[in-house]
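Q: Structure tokens for this one, please.
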Amino acid sequence: MQIQRVDFDPEGGELRLSGRVTNEVEGVRLGSHHTLTVEVHRAFSLHKECWDSVSLERLREATTLDGGRSAELVAVLIKESATGGLAQLFLVSGGMSVAKARLEANPFPKQGDPRVVHGGKKARERWFDQLLAAILRHVELGAVKCVILAGPGFTKDAFFEFMLAEAARRSLRELLVSKPKWVVCHASSAYKHALREVFTDPTVATRISDTRAAAEVLALGQFFDMMRDQPDRVTYGLRQVRYASEQGAVDKLLLADTLFRAQNIARRAEHVALVEATKGAGGGIHIFSDLHASGEQLANLGGVAALLRFPLPIDDLLEDDDDGGDDAAEGEEDASDEAESVEAPG
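A: Here is the predicted structure, written as tokens:
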């Protein structure tokens, strides 16, 4: 089949490949359009004419995960307001933040008729119970390094107390044993963008310091801090970063993973060469997923950025090179004109 479109559903764990049938297959007409769905735990063979180092490394990382359950971190964001309640569960691994559950609830009355208030309390407990069920279903508590519970106000604290009480009442041993892994902290909202805020919280940063997600958030934070304080120690854009790499100046290379999924094979090869050159020079590599908040930030810079080992005014140097190239070109044109003027009389 000649692939014409690829759709990935991270929440459902499905990859849909659509295209035109080019080989004879029983029951499928040659030349017809067909969609093939690749699901988690469904075996398949993948062949490529050329495997680059980045693809092989990412494939190795992907195949070490157990269907998304072996996440390094888990983040539970929760809030309630006058408009209702919202809770989201994210698994964070390999630079990706995948939403596994989203639970919304109607507003919980806290004043007025006692019967209405009591009904609101029961509805809130049912909402908490649904969130607890989602955590038990999607999270391998024995394997994760840290579980972050965050949100505005006191709803997160109320849920944490409810969860521990339910764990004791229902003898949920795995949940009780995981209590030291939980970190309760503030977040401004329960939406995905709040993850960036949570990961930079000093308490959380200390607990998750040895995870890949923390390393990427830290590297991007260093980039922006250095851009503000020492602009000659950072650069972004393919041309600028490639120039810095040629000078042996790249200390940390930051790349968006979308660059390695581009349809332009030559452009993909340029980014792979940049990765290999940086590794060869002893630099660090951070590849950010677009499923993570930090990856979205990097995409705004064109998907390529670098922290440098030493100050390098790259824009000025590139301008000088461009000017020199123009001068050289003008010199060649002058020489050519002069040669023509000498030869013309003869």
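A few notes: The CA atoms of residues 171 and 235 lie 54 Å apart. DSSP finds eleven helices and twelve strands in the chain.
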